Amino acid sequence: MSVPMVPADRPRLSRHRRLPALAAVAVAHLIARLPPGRIRAVLTFARRGAVPATAPQARAARDAVIAVSLSCAGQGCLPRSIAAALLCRLRGTWPTWCAGVRVHPFAAHAWIEADGRPIGEPPVQHHRTIVVAPVGAEG
Q1: Helix-strand-coil percent breakdown of the chain, rounded to 5?
Q2: CA spacing 20 to 30 A to 65: which of 11, 27, 55, 101?
Q3: Has this prediction a pTM greater than 0.85?
Q4: d(CA 134, CA 65)
Q5: CB under 8 Å to 60, separation ≥6 — which residues?
């Protein structure tokens, strides 16, 4: 599940920025259907060769994903976070991709981080259960 958050004014993208975002969202929806271990494996493979994303780069990717997908703009935290990470990867960077849970009340969530901060997320604390950090930043 995800924290409900549909931005009132989704950003608009030019055609050349829209196509990669749409491709990332389409692939993310396929990856999101996989079991958690496979998702980790796919994202670990995808991050190879990328440099760590900065917060502005990760924010731009997340905003682009939200602009092209209503499901990702709403409660689709898993495909939103995967698509944002993949879009960063298309641009040569990789954010820290995280999935986790909150116990009271129980909720599962997925998000991206850059520069040690969650990108575009409300201040709800989740225990990180799966993390795919940039190569060399796992620690």
Answers
A1: 45, 20, 35
A2: 101
A3: yes
A4: 20
A5: none
What burial class does residue 119 get, using C-beta atoms within 10 Å of its C-beta: 0-12 exposed, 13-18 middle, 19+ buried? Answer: buried
Tokens of 120: 């575009």
Q: In the predicted model, what is the mean pLDDT of residues 46-67?
A: 96
The percentage of residues in the chain with a pLDDT greater than 90, rounded to a whole number, is 68
Pairing verdict, β 93-94 and 51-52: parallel
Tokens representing 109 are: 């969530």
Of the candidates 1, 121, 132, 124, which has an alpha carbon nearest to the alpha carbon of residue 66?
A: 121
Tokens, residue 99: 């999935």
In the beta sheet, which residues pair with residue 127?
A: 101
